Amino acid sequence: MFHGSLVAIVTPFKKGKVDEKALGDLIDWQIAQGTHGIVPCGTTGESATLTHEEHEQVVAFTIEASKGRVPVIAGTGSNSTDEAITLTKHAKKAGADGALLITPYYNTPTQEGLFRHYKAIAEAVDLPIVLYNIPGRTSVNMLPPTVARLSSFKNIVAIKEGSGSLQQVSDVIQACGERLTVLSGDDALTLPMMAIGAKGVITVTANIVPKDMAKMTDAFAAGKLAEARKLHYKMSPLFAALFYETNPIPVKEALGMMGKCTAELRLPLCPMAADTREKLARALKDYGLI
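The structure assignment produced for this chain is given below.
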């Protein structure tokens, strides 16, 4: 159902408010460049500092602006199951094609707690669900046996795997087979993950080079391995540069340098330090982006 390069899109701000004009322009540009799907209100979209009203605004606006040209997978995760259900119900009502749900953070549930969390959401909302495992952000690692249990629900269709472990990805694919689509949660591991069975990526890097990310996933899917490898190594400096500081600080700064939107963030995120900003600018210049 979901494949290729799906951009974890930023939420542009202007003087403290969501900048719908800039967001609409970014969505149109992404689609024109070949991006296979839009994912608003994820980590890169600064969901943690959006109000509920803003969250719903961004999801609904993204769906409207996309006009059915590509799938929209709304970020609806929370460390409260009830809140996640509420956000996922809104995404369904707004017309989203799916929902991306991060594992509950801070309260670090057990594997059984994770299973019950996703089970409750899957049973409450009839919408395709993408699990999201990123232990570096949440301090909880959803293990392959838990993913396999969840893959038995018909509307749990995919997982964004950001554990950083190719062994874990391999174990998930072996355990779930065709029941669950695996998407990379780490841009630098997208090509290696596709080599062992993943179908694409939910990506930060596509915010600034959507065409190349889409071309890399398309090339691999078409069996053009040399072309996919060449694009992987071309983008490799950007994979590093966009994580010089906490995501989404560098990607917002990059988009600001490119004139796509302001670099405005919300506290506790703050502008890049001068030295890392200089390194980022050098990487963008080397790539021909500025």
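Interim note for the steering committee: The radius of gyration is 18 Å. The CA atoms of residues 47 and 88 lie 14 Å apart.
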